[in-house]
Amino acid sequence: MPGRTTVTDNLWFRRYHPFDAAPARVVMFPHAGGSAAYFRDWSAALSPHADVLAVQYPGRLDRIDEAAVDSLPELAERVYAELRPWADRPLVLFGHSMGAAVAFEVARRFERDGVSGPVRLCVSGSRAPSEPRDSTVHLLPDDGLLAELGRLGGTDARLLADPELRALILPSLRGDYTAIETYVAGREEGVTVPVTALTGDADPRVTVEQARDWALHTTAAFDLHVFPGGHFYLAHERDAVLEVVTSHLRA
């Protein structure tokens, strides 16, 4: 297996709380417009159980000078290539919103190439890949795109109100929305690892039934967890979500 790089050598992952002797790794995939930093506190909570890698997509924070990847299959391919050297122990993939689709496609690439690694896929705040999704948000003018982000409640309103910060996040935000809104997967496309779906009961973008349809995309076990809240239910249900993840790590 290729030599593994450290977190400081690899732009794609943030390893906030290294645990070299961990029996497993959890890989966290952020939502559209999000960054690895969203999962810093999650990493601290999971660090007694697993080594945690938070994915850093191009076009944000310390990768602000890079163009965002506006094709979800291309993004997944690039993450997969960087993640393979870290698959020296079982991987649990956790993705929220757009991150769920990226994690799913990364898992599919491991299976495509016959490479062991993912043992569970946790998908949060996301309709199943074969469910139709809105395809127009990425075409909105800047104000409309930012309004959609604010409506979902995952971004500090003060950030959206600052003209300089808005200008910084818009390119990656539009790239992310383009990636997820132009992504299509058929019902026959799936994985052979267990899938855990998590969703908020008042998510304006994902119904419980649309989340349940993730069961169509695995030939292994499936479980669904519904929490109170909207698209970013996990902000106030973090401990409960972490318990779901750690229960699979213990298993």
Automatic annotation (TrEMBL):
Q: Where is the Thioesterase domain?
A: 25-245
Q: Which InterPro entries match?
A: AB_hydrolase_fold, TEII, Thioesterase
Q: What is this protein called?
A: Alpha/beta fold hydrolase
Give the Pfam families listed for this entry. Answer: Thioesterase (PF00975)
Superkingdom to which the source organism belongs: Bacteria
A GO molecular function held by the record: hydrolase activity
Tell me the organism: Kitasatospora putterlickiae
Listed A to Z, the keywords are:
Hydrolase
Assigned protein family: Belongs to the thioesterase family.
